[in-house]
Design a protein that fits this description.
This protein has 122 residues and is mostly helical. The protein has one domain. The protein is 78% helix and 0% strand. The longest helix has 27 residues. The structure holds protoporphyrin IX containing FE.
């Protein structure tokens, strides 16, 4: 598969993760409980599949770009962001962190990942 195809897969995954997290944050902020969430399965599956596709597309692109181990710093940064976005769904359901911090924080993480992928600063 070409770099372009991997990039579309990467973005499809990222969009799925973002939509899922937005839904859970808004639901939890409105006082909703996980067990009563009618979209729980849809959201859980979308989040999980999205993480997988983001990773698949990301590593596919790394192969096409011939970027191998040891990874440059921006790849490590992206993996950390990916891990944070993975953990975020449980954090969002628990509602311990303020909804607004999560909401804007996730957008910032996405922007940081785009910066790292686009500029490859280190
Ligand atoms: C598993 C971790 C990840 C890896 C290995 C990875 C890898 C990559 C690679 C190799 C590129 C292509 C750069 C190029 O075309 O030269 C890229 C682009 C991009 N990634 Fe990721 N990525 C990861 C996670 C993420 C996450 C979590 C997000 C968003 C939340 C994200 C958003 C983007 C965006 C917006 C671009 C486009 C930048 C551009 O091409 O100008 N990535 N990523």
């Amino acid at each position: 598969m070409s770099l372009q195809v991997y990039k579309i897969i990467h973005f499809a995954g990222v969009f799925m993760v973002m939509v899922s997290l937005g839904a859970v944050i808004a639901y939890a902020a409105a006082g909703g409980e996980k067990k009563n969430f009618a979209y729980r399965k849809t959201v859980g599956m979308t989040h999980g599949l999205g993480l997988f596709l983001a990773l698949l597309g990301g590593f596919g692109m790394l192969a096409r770009l011939e970027i191998h181990w040891p990874w440059p710093g921006w790849v490590i940064g992206k993996l950390l962001i990916w891990l944070l976005l993975g953990a975020m769904i449980a954090i969002a359901y628990r509602g311990k962190l303020s909804g607004k911090v999560q909401w804007w924080g996730i957008i910032l993480l996405g922007v940081a990942a785009a910066y790292l992928g686009g500029m490859k600063p280190f």
